[in-house]
Amino acid sequence: MSNAAIIHTMAERLIELGDMSADRVRSYPAPGTATSDDLIAANSGLGPLCELIDGTLVEKAMGFEASIVAVTIARILGTFVCSRKLGVVSGPDGMFRLLANTVRGPNVAYLARDRFPGGSFPTDTFPALSPNLVVEVLSPGNTKAEMSRKRIEYFHSGVQLVWIVDCVSRSVAVYSSPSSVTELGEEQVIDGGQVLPDFTSPIADFFADLG
C-alpha cells in the first residue's frame, strides 16, 4: 500500500493487493497489521504458503501444473548457475524482503554472489535483498493486476529481469522493466540477457514434463 493510500473496506484492500479473491487473504492478523513474525508462523503450518504484502498475509495462488514447471525451470537455471559458481537459485519458500512490510517468494529466483551482503551467504529468514532474476509461473488464481503489481515491486526493489511463464499458452513474457516485454513461444529459445550471459534454453524444455 502506498503511503497516500488509506484502506477503508476489504473490497478496497483486495483491489490494492491486485484485485484478488478474498479467500486468499488471511483475516488474522487483521489485514494491514501483520508482521514478519506472523508470516513465519503462517508458513510453519500445513496450509498454503503465504506472502506478506503491505502488512497483509496473502496465500500464494497454487497450481500443480505451475509447480511442476517451476521446479523444472529451477533445475535448468540451477544447473547453469551452480556449475559456474555464479550465485544461488531459490524456490517459493525462499523469500525476500522487498519493502519494509512486503515479503515476496517468487516461484524461482536467481541471486548473484555479488549481491550477498559483505560477500557472505545471507542467513536472515527474509533477507532484505533483491534477486537479479525472478520467475513467476502463472496459476489459475493469479490476476493481471496482481502480476502487474508484482512486476512493479520487483523492479522497484532492484530486480533486473522478470520472466512470467504461462503454462496454458506455453510461453514466457520476458520483462526488462515493468512495462517493457518480449513474448516468446514454445518453439523459441530464451536467454539470460545481461543478467545471465551465455545462458540459453529452449522454452519447450520448461514444459517438457507436461507431456
Key descriptive features of the protein:
six-stranded mixed beta sheet; alpha+beta; 26% strand; 211 residues; two-stranded antiparallel sheet; 5 helices
Give a description of the structure.
- By secondary structure, the protein is of the alpha+beta class.
- The chain contains five helices and twelve strands.
- It has a six-stranded mixed beta sheet, sandwiched between helices. Strands 1-2 form a two-stranded antiparallel sheet. It has a two-stranded antiparallel ribbon with strand order 4-5.
- The model has no long low-confidence stretch (mean pLDDT 94).
Structural class: alpha+beta
Shape: globular
**Could you give the distance between the termini?**
41 Å
Give, in order, the helices and strands. Answer: HHEEHEEEEEHEEEEEH
Tell me the strand order in the biggest sheet.
3-6-7-8-9-10
Low-confidence segments: none
Q: Mean of the pLDDT scores?
A: 94
Number of helices: 5
Q: Give the total of beta strands.
A: 12
Helix content: 25-40%
DSSP strand content: 25-35%
- What does the main sheet amount to? 6 strands, mixed
**What is the CA-based Rg, rounded?**
17 Å
